[in-house]
Design brief:
The chain has 247 residues and is an alpha/beta fold. Helix content is 48%, strand content 15%. Helix 3 packs parallel to helix 4.
Length: 247
Amino acid sequence: MYSFNNKTVLVTGSSRGIGKAIVQAFAENGANVVINYVSSERPANELAESIRESGGNALVVKGDVSSFNDAERIVNEAIDTFGKIDILINNSGITKDNLMLRMTEDDFDRVVEVNLKGTWNMCKNVTRHFLKNKAGSIINITSVVGIIGNPGQSNYVASKAGIIGLTKSLAKEFGSRHIRVNAVAPGFIETEMTDQLPDEAKQAYLKQIPLNEFGSVQDIANACLFLASDEAKYITGQTLSVNGGMI
């Protein structure tokens, strides 16, 4: 059990899936939570309402992190509501998979804009606030494929590998100011998206996992809880792989 009482966590792309689980985990451990979405307004509001009914505090903010102005507004609305941000978790991400010969330039650009540039936009805007407070924690959600690569996902892999490099660089830039920057690299995690995969594809993935099971969204949330906690106060610039042994 972690304690995040009087702490505020902002989670991008958090109306469903991994982001939703992260929000719920922090709320259950006492944090004020900021839920960000682009198009899933109803799920975001339902999540916020369930947290409030349980006695927690939640704010919903619409915004596209690939827009610098939106990123700035998301951060400012969180600060205006809760007075501060203590933890930023960059979870927003999209896929537009295809083999490179068939991938369009627009599909490459859009994935990089949301996944990598969006992460940079949020970090850029929140670190100004962290510097004033002389404290803060950033956790960037990358992917196992950002480490090992994956055919048909050159845009997604490039963006997730870039997030790992960004994490290491920012950890060195801001470490002296007591701002920690880490990443979590999920492996194959069961979500609404993976539920739609054919059984043959799932079995192929299982063969690559020594633990012989898929991860849950709670596994990723637990990793974020740890990295954001005081128990991890001497950890920065690291990528925590949560993949059942795939790498």
